């Protein structure tokens, strides 16, 4: 019996060692390279505050700014590494006075529906912690399937707020200041009929939250509890962007809390919001693989655009809030 127990213990140890080696290899598979190409986002309004970006095809994209209630179509020139703006398009609003701002934080494109989705933060104002209805918006923006160009007619608006209030883990954080772990959406992507929302906050003891919701349910279903995913992002960190790629998602992380303000002098932020990291998440497990930390450049990592996705590598543009034209950084992730 003792021999059997010893063998069993040895077998468990070998299995654990094998799992550790596999995990180590999985981590080693990813290598980040900053490419020399200098991309430019040209002609976009509020270009210091660009916050969301997605493409319908190789040449047509849509850009959002968190200080506007407009969306801005763009044309991608891959040869000259340039994205040129087109005329902004106003989004339908709920309010009719005060500051008109959706606080756009994420843009995604659905190949099935041939439509963009644009989401507001669903959070309070960062400086005054005031409730603004239009921040709690999500829009469906159709495109011409032949050209990928935005069709102004048919834009639809709804809100995630009814779903958030019916989700016990999230409801206590709704309408709370971001400095104090109040709910705030910062990332959005689409995959296989579902929208995935990356939450900057709340963060839960070193884990970030991703909301998964079918587009049909959002724009036609009865609000119910949301499906939540929890992934490791390190303590006091939150999800700042999420992008669907082959085999899962690339996640961008940064400070979960906002900096203090006169109205909200206390914050849980551990320090300046200058460190931004990329993770890979397969979309199923409650685990993530760290890819690497982006070089600091004085901006805040805000949006990801997938340019190329192959079996060997993944090319991304990282757009930064606070830098003129988003100062895109070209990044290659080797699988």
Describe the structure.
With 335 residues, the chain is mostly beta strands. It has one domain (33-334): Neuraminidase, CATH 2.120.10. The longest helix is centred in the first third of the chain and has 28 residues, at 2-29. The strands form five sheets. Strands 2, 3, 4, 5, 6 and 7 form a six-stranded mixed β-sheet that branches. A four-stranded antiparallel β-sheet has the order 1-22-21-20, with no helix packed on it. A four-stranded antiparallel β-sheet has the order 8-9-10-11, with no helix packed on it. It contains three helices and 22 strands. Helices cover 11% and strands 41% of the residues. The radius of gyration is 21 Å and the shape is globular.
Largest sheet: 6 strands, mixed
Q: Residue-averaged pLDDT, rounded?
A: 90
> Which architecture does the CATH hierarchy give at level 2?
6 Propeller
Cα Rg:
21 Å
Structural class: mainly beta
Distance between the termini: 46 Å
The fold-level CATH name is Neuraminidase
Please state roughly what percent of the residues sit in beta strands, choosing from under 5%, 5-15%, 15-25%, 25-35%, 35-45% or over 45%: 35-45%
Specify the CATH class. Mainly Beta
Number of strands: 22
Taken together, the total number of domains comes to: 1
Q: Regarding quaternary structure, how should these chains be classified?
A: single chain
Low confidence ranges: 1-28
The ordered H/E elements are HEEEEEEEEEEEHEEEHEEEEEEEE
Give the helix proportion (percent range). 10-25%
**Outline type:** globular
Number of helices: 3
